[in-house]
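Re: molybdenum atom structure - here you go.
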Amino acid sequence: MNSSNTKTVPSYCYNCVAGPDPMKVEVVDGVATQVMPNFDACDSHPGKGRPCVKAYGLVQKTYNPHRVLQPMKRTNPNKGMDEDPGFVPISWDEALTLLTDKLNSIRAKGLIDEQGTPRTAATFGHGGTPMYYMGTFPAFLASWGPIDFSFGSGQGVKCVHSEHLYGEFWHRAFTVAADTPYTRYVLSLGTNVDATGGPCAIARHADARVRGYKRVQVEPHQSVTGATAAEWVPIRPKTDAAFMFALIHSMLHDHPRNELDIDFLRDQTASPYLVGPDGLYLRDPDSAKPLIWDSEQQQAVPFDRVNVIPALEGTFKVGHAISVDADDERHQLNDIEATTGFNKLLDHVAQYSPDWAARICDIPADTIRRIASEYLDNACIGETIEIDGATLPFRPVAVTLGKSVNNGWGAYECCWARTVMATLVGALEVPGGTLGTTVRLNRPHEDRLRSVKPGIDGFMEQKLNPTDKENWVAKPTGRNAHTTLVPIVGSSAWSQALGPTQLAWMFQKDRPEGFNLPEPTKPDIWFIFRSNPAISFWDTRSLNKSIADFPYTVSFAYTLDETNWMADLLLPEATDLESTQLIPIGGTKFVEQFWKHKGAILRQKVVEPQGEAKDFTWISTELAKRMDLLDKYNTAINRGAGGVAPLRGEGYDFSLDINKAHQPDEIWDAVCKATSTELSNNEETKDLDWYKENGLYLKPIPQKSWYLYPTMKELGIRFEMPYQERLLRIGKELGNRLHEKDIAWWDEQLSEYSALPEWHDIPGRWETALKNEGADPDDYPFWLLATKSMQYHTGANVSIQLMREVSQNVRGHTGVIMNSNSAAKLGIANGDRVEIRSNIGVTIGRAELIQGVRPDTLVIVGQFDHWATPYAKDLEMPSLNTIAPMSLELTDATGSGADIVRVAISKVKGETS
Ligand SMILES: Nc1nc2c(c(=O)[nH]1)N[C@H]1C(S)=C(S)[C@@H](COP(=O)(O)OP(=O)(O)OC[C@H]3O[C@@H](n4cnc5c(=O)[nH]c(N)nc54)[C@H](O)[C@@H]3O)O[C@H]1N2
Ligand SMILES: Nc1nc2c(c(=O)[nH]1)N[C@H]1C(S)=C(S)[C@@H](COP(=O)(O)OP(=O)(O)OC[C@H]3O[C@@H](n4cnc5c(=O)[nH]c(N)nc54)[C@H](O)[C@@H]3O)O[C@H]1N2
Ligand code: SF4
Ligand SMILES: [Mo]
């Protein structure tokens, strides 16, 4: 259609963590009619200017008849699934008065409660994406003071959690991706990129397929990504660590050393560091620096001695050395035999042969050996490639891990093994290899390379939570105790939301025996936005009860959902197509956003907000004004909180008068100008009108910035691989602290701290957990797993009819995926209504029978089983979350858990096929 009243307006979609992606929206007579690609970004955006299918649902999202379009106040004081909240519409003035009265009463009591935790809590879900829709709300939060982000929504602990923590520890890799445009071989253990990677990943992998790369998908069911891979290996759930240990075994014990990258191992990693009989690094008695073996002078010398060729393998006699154990306990070691970290690895994996793993993983030993060979064959040891004028190693093999491999028990082992595999062939952080995408725990967030600084022992500096006697945080500052229990998560702005967020929920109800920490309080006020823990977490029916117990919940609401059913106040913010915000775009970022540009993109008011929905920036300013916080709020905006660049910088000043309330457009105009001026080094200034017309502002960046290796080399820093002496020590120290307080309920988690992870029966943990609950594992013979959907971004767009319609054409979206032969044995036919039962509950859906899934495995797409969200509640879609327990026993040392549960399945009684 083309009339004088038709326009196309550039904007962005950032509804899932694979974004942001540019798009355009067609508007006819003031009505948004369709979403389209933004081909202006064709040459810069790795997805060639295209958004994914989900963005096409934004028109229906805007005009969804079920939207909350006025502030609402709860009138029923009782909260529960069966209690109608009795929401009644109120004016914005009344809503903001109610909220400011509440906040003022909290301020009067003190922002921190009697247990030392903030009275205000907030949950923003889905991998941090709500930030890109909340305008200047972060500036309001900054002006307010301490806030507890402890109550999670399944994001973090259910995401690629171990990778977040260990990935960032080893190579500043909050998430990890293949260098797809250059790689020749990708071993993907459950990474479901063709469903979850958005247009960037999908375009990159499609191009790589044309180029002839090979992707091997190791996954218990044949996902969309498995279907587009060259090979599918149906592994037994939660045995990936054994599979990878065997690959490492094969690479080290079946192949000659010259198939590995010996120079990389010797010069860029901790492989040559000497390990003593106590399992700790041998250190120089004076400087306490780790020792290496000088292969020419035949003596142990500190690792940073110049002009030394360290020995990679061997055992050596060392006359005098020390080791430094937990709590700085120093051991004097004389005339001992030492070996290298690499040798330790070699000996350690000797037990993990492919034949051994075959039995555990249900993968033939020959397949494991072949994959190890293929990986080595494609590693191109010794080859180089020119990138931006620099000659870099070219190692086109990558290993990636999906969400459920990357969280819960076994995830540490998998992350470690993945990084070891990259290390062995020098494919870590080099072209073609395994790369980190971004940093969250370390700063600066916008530049991964600059987050690397030299630290102790020749490794990167790490900002870990202290475990020493003086500094350990014995009294948690937040309700998930992240600084107390998880050293590796650190204490930066994102750390709390990445802490063991399920503990915050669990400890509200039950605490383990000998808890010995301050009894957790309820937050006086809880803000929730774009998150639905009552659907997205585990044991969701019980979680609901905890949510219902919170005294005052404020939900920024798009529709009713299962969480805000318990809210006291609903505030409708103007959504995707109705409001304005400028955010960063480009650089490198999860999932596979690797750009050769960097800049900012505008989300703009494409159409007038529906009903009384208000721009989030307007809401934030209004709150700041009413709370008398304008000066702090505007100061935070001037500093760049939630925006892109500080409003005042070298050679420019667009800062706002801190004592005035500014309209959203005025604020974003200043942010637009500051950002473009900063990005162009003061060469040009683009205002809001320019962005409204042009959408995004980009500057070229070198592709070299994708790779961390040159920075590590330049700074003379080694990758902390393969031997984890530091983690071993930290674990012991944490144990000492907890035991001094008679806390024993975290002991199992402490077992994860090992220098070289050992295989233990990881799937067996789920069986043991059942026994400990008094259930018989034989009654639950199937593994139930989750998988994500291209059409849905977690549970956020389940109320959009178009997504439902499209997804019905894609396998897995009609119920529970089950192997046809297993179904036949139980008399289940395709489309039958089935109940899937765990020891804590039941979920009902339709059987979707296929061959491409292991006979012992069931899979449910996404997160459904809604009972309040309009439209979705009528779909009768089952959900793993209803029946998977939230369990301390199934929580790993990082605080994460996996979406996996033992279940039984049967036809719903009384129904015939
Ligand atoms: N079974 C299962 N569970 C999972 C996962 C899985 O794959 N399977 N994935 C896990 C992972 S990795 C994550 S990150 C979490 C995510 O889980 P959550 O963080 O809880 O996020 P969502 O499910 O996306 O919840 C989004 C909520 O925001 C609302 N919403 C959508 N758009 C808007 C809007 O414009 N304005 C407002 N105010 N609200 C809006 C939706 O109605 C919905 O209620 O889930 C985890 N849980
Ligand atoms: N379209 C879309 N894209 C998204 C999201 C979304 O909701 N929708 N969410 C975003 C978010 S928040 C995240 S965290 C990422 C997650 O991105 P992915 O990690 O790609 O997510 P999943 O689809 O859950 O893929 C994990 C796969 O691992 C399989 N699996 C389960 N257990 C095992 C096991 O023991 N071994 C092996 N080998 N495989 C196993 C599951 O069946 C599943 O197919 O996606 C992001 N992108
Ligand atoms: S991949 Fe995610 S951010 Fe990108 S267009 Fe799709 S939903 Fe939006
Ligand atoms: Mo996630």
